[in-house]
Amino acid sequence: MYLAIFIFIILIMILATDVEINIKSADDTIKIYAKIGLIRFVIPHQRLISNALKKEQLKDKQKQREDFKKLFKNRHYLNRLFKHSSLSMFYIARFTKEELYLNPIMNGAYLMVSNQISAYLNHHFKMVDYRNIKLIYDEQYENIDYFICVKADLISILTAIIIRTD
């Protein structure tokens, strides 16, 4: 009996482990950091992307089109993962440091795109920290183009993977 309770408590602690993914772009390089519990590591995405590109170049055009269509059909897995995750930080740098009214066409386009991104984030994530959505120029992030921090726990990720939508 005590062993079953102990195993149940350990299982709950393992499934409640936090998973945090940080995506940062600085000087045209993307870095992806992950943290599972207390362990931090860098995801070697450059190698994964280069291997995927090499595989795609070996395919013919018809197969590439089918894969592209399949990508858009299977995006519900990513949307379900977003629904079970919380967005704790989102920053996009505005490339002009001047005021919005000085360059109305470029800054108007920026405002439209940034509001669309903000609406997408609000609609697709379980919880969004509105104080940390920054779509402006910030001195604290001097050389960073964008920064995204997504948090979840293992039970939410497993739930997003296992749930079937019919």
What features would you describe in this structure?
The protein has 166 residues and is α/β, with parallel strands linked by helices. The protein has six helices and seven strands, in the order αβββαααβαβββα. It has helices at 2-15, 45-58, 61-73, 76-83, 104-124, 154-162, and strands spanning 18-26, 29-36, 39-42, 86-92, 127-128, 133-134, 144-153. Strands 1, 2, 3, 4, 5, 6 and 7 form a seven-stranded mixed sheet that branches. Helix 5 (104-124) links the parallel strand 4 and strand 5 (127-128). Helix 4 runs antiparallel to helix 6 (154-162). The radius of gyration is 20 Å and the shape is globular. The mean pLDDT is 78.
Q: In brief, what are we looking at here?
A:
By secondary structure, the chain is α/β, with parallel strands linked by helices.
Characteristic terms for this protein:
166 residues; alpha/beta; seven-stranded mixed β-sheet
Strand and helix layout:
Blueprint lengths: L1 H14 L2 E9 L2 E8 L2 E4 L2 H14 L2 H13 L2 H8 L2 E7 L11 H21 L2 E2 L4 E2 L9 E10 H9 L4
Parallel strand pairs: 4-5, 4-6
Antiparallel strand pairs: 1-2, 1-7, 2-3, 4-7
Helix pairs in contact: 4-6
